[in-house]
Amino acid sequence: MQVFKFGGASVKNANGVKNVAALLQKVGYKNTLIVVSAMGKTTNALELVIKNYFDNNAELQSALQEVKKYHNEILLDLFENENHQVFKKVTGFFNELNLFLASNKSPDYNFVYDQIIGYGELVSTAIISEYLNFIGLKNNWIDVREFIKTDNYYRSANVNWEETQQRISSNFNKTVLNITQGFLGSDPNNFTTTLGREGSDYTAAIFAYCLNANNVTIWKDVPGVLNADPRYFENAQLLNKISYREAIELAFYGASVIHPKTLQPLQGKEIPLYVKSFFNAEAPGTRIGRNITLDPMVPCFIVKKNQVLISLSSLDFSYIVEENISEIFNLLHLYKMKVDVIQNSAISFSVCVDNIYDNLDKLLHHLKAKFKVTCHENVSLYTIRHYTQNSIDQIEEGKTVLLKQLTQETVQVVSK
């Protein structure tokens, strides 16, 4: 049993879908599960639909029409007959979405987000499944929400592993080619939930764990895991092999190739993870597994943009001790801030956070009641694993360093 995951870039147009089909024919698809993301930038387009739903209702249908138009153009490129059942199936999903938009009573943004955003994956997989059947690659389309069960922490749901394992073990047919959606699950009331942005990798790992898969392959538009994001760093190198531990470290610090949650279930059962290029299916890519030495041993660069650096000091110059730190972390948890770096001294405490839920103003208001607060928005957090002095100089050049932290293997720099 093998699990393949294809991201949105791999299926952004009709040629991408055809390439997926050709890739499956080349590398084999026996006893395979395919996990697919929304096509191209559909998730971004649906986020605009959500924004208009809350803030600009006059533009709501226009934004939704753009999503429909995009997918219809792909359909027309893939299928010769407009009477093919896939057109009706896709229309059915958009009718469901319109019904939700017309009937929803909940003002909860996160709930609404999850109910709308998932249609990207549902439509994507419906199109790809029908195209594969159309060209003779018989497959079974499955609704991932019937298999992956979560709590109702919308936009970053936690998996109910016991129920998910039971559902997959009891109802999954390993003997056929299956295709399902990444990123999605459902809560105890069967409302759609999402596993966090880029959560399709995690979906693949969940199924691999529950199915005792032989391996997982994430197909990307890059040759494998690189030591740096080529959008921000020159001369990025391919990492041929990485240990689970090293990959988890890179993911924790924000490496965009692998979702932070993906590696833990795979490590639990020692299931190898491959990251390969869908442009060159036969190239070896990157292998991630147990007891593997980083190859080649080079500095690995990670950057996270649009971060917030908050620096606190006591109003009366008293020590910031356990009681204060505990209160600070309770507030960070309350306002759903993802903490990336912390640094403290006797009378100061600094934290670099990701303001995912847009609760910064509320947090700062709360903190200012007890602390002197300095806040820097739109800062960049650079992390280097296996750093050298030359690599540190490279990322500091021409920048104002606001915070710097070194350990034996890792350096982190917050800069403006």
From TrEMBL:
- Whether Amino-acid biosynthesis counts among this entry's keywords is yes
Q: Which reaction does it catalyse?
A: L-aspartate + ATP = 4-phospho-L-aspartate + ADP
The UniProt keyword set, sorted, is:
Amino-acid biosynthesis, ATP-binding, Kinase, Nucleotide-binding, Transferase
Q: What class of enzyme is it?
A: transferase
Q: Which domain of life is it from?
A: Bacteria
- Known pathway: Amino-acid biosynthesis; L-methionine biosynthesis via de novo pathway; L-homoserine from L-aspartate: step 1/3; Amino-acid biosynthesis; L-threonine biosynthesis; L-threonine from L-aspartate: step 1/5; Amino-acid biosynthesis; L-lysine biosynthesis via DAP pathway; (S)-tetrahydrodipicolinate from L-aspartate: step 1/4
Under Gene3D superfamilies, the record lists: 3.30.70.260, Acetylglutamate kinase-like, Aspartokinase, catalytic domain
What's a single GO MF annotation on this record?
aspartate kinase activity
Aspartate/glutamate/uridylate kinase domain ranges (all copies): 2-277
A Pfam family (short name) is AA_kinase
Q: Does the keyword Amino-acid biosynthesis apply?
A: yes
Q: Extract the InterPro entries matched here.
A: AceGlu_kinase-like_sf, ACT-like_dom_sf, Asp/Glu/Uridylate_kinase, Asp_kin_monofn, Asp_kinase, AsparK_Bifunc_asparK/hSer_DH
> EC annotation?
2.7.2.4
What is stated as this protein's family in its record?
Belongs to the aspartokinase family.
Question: By what name is this protein known?
Answer: Aspartokinase
Q: Which organism is it from?
A: Mariniflexile soesokkakense
